[in-house]
Amino acid sequence: MPQSVETFNYASYHTLDEIYNFMDLLVAANPNLVSKIQIGNSYEGRPLYVLKFSTRGTKRPAIWIDTGIHSREWVTQASGVWFAKKIVDSYGKDPSLTSILDNLDIFLEIVTNPDGFAFTHTKNRMWRKTRSINSGSACIGVDPNRNWDAGFGGSGASSNPCSETYRGPYANSEREVKAIVDFVKSHGNIKTFISIHSYSQLLLYPYGYTKTRAPDYQELNNIAKAAVAALSSLYDTQYRYGSIITTIYQASGGTIDWTYNQGIKYSFTFELRDRGRYGFLLPANQIIPTAEETWLALMAIMEYTRDHPY
Amino acid sequence: KETFVGNQVLRIFVANEADVEKVKELEELQELQLDFWRGPGGQDVPTDVRVPFASLQAVKIFLESSGIRYSILIDDLQTLVDEEQTQMIRQHF
Question: What ipTM was assigned to the predicted interfaces of this complex?
């Protein structure tokens, strides 16, 4: 187990216990800035933790970031850990991040699908879904990125429990999804929602379930363009951006389609690097470069949120 | 513990909508136990699919007979998994 956030190895992949221990260390080291909230439990009973970075008050306008909803996308959880440390290191030093946190809270869910993540470490490195049992099928799990109440059951998701894109029996059937839905609704003041996946090197905005353009299409496109430019400035990693359906493929029941329809205008989903050479087995020496470049894009989106309240 | 010995990840390049439909047909064949890492989408984004060793011949013949171009992205997935595991253990010590 890590002994402190300073000696924690950010350039290695870690187990669920190690990441949860890291969260406790981070909270203990920064009690006035970071707190840990449990928003629910997973199907197998693991706690679903969110780190809250806040300088004051409750239910202030907020930014949500989640990593690891697809458990095998290990570079996302690893990047989430790095982001958490970056936030505490930057507050009070980086004027831009400081002003963001003086105006907004940040919520960060590092392991959004803990059952799946534990399973990738113990039984099947390529596990993507949740671990819920499907009645009447021998196949386990639901794709949590097809389980949201936005075009649920439409094209781009499977009704077959054995498929990697199985949508589940009904919207929000997965506890991991429902926990976020409940949190977002009860909070009521989330302005930006960023869900982080890998790989493919994309920054996407709604919609995925319909070809209809989002009402804020032009603004979202402009933000994505600026964020991708910021990201590419560090290591020249090439990203594409656009709506989900026009940039990659049709997908119904996706996270950010739901958040956008809830009124969270700045809804984005990332597909982090690896240029497609290693798939979900991105070498650990690329964790920090990936996190560093992604951070620049996150900052661009967070700065825009700060400067363009709605 | 599930292993991926002999599993390959193929990158499929579609040239037109007909190719996309062919690849979607492939996706429907549950007995092949394919794991689509990306796609099948449009012509701009290649499709990446993990193919178990037992299905490799069938998939490659399907693609070649359909005139769909592909390359091998990962030759043996288990080798990469083993490398990752070794690296994690080394880092932890």
Answer: 0.94
- Across the interface, do A249 and B42 touch by the CB < 8 Å criterion? yes
End-to-end CA distance of chain B: 23
Which residues of A are annotated as catalytic? Answer: 271
- Chain B CB contacts of A163 under 8 Å are 30
Name the pLDDT band for A47 (thresholds 50, 70, 90).
very high
Residues in chain A closer than 8 A to B84 (CB atoms): 13, 125, 281, 283-284
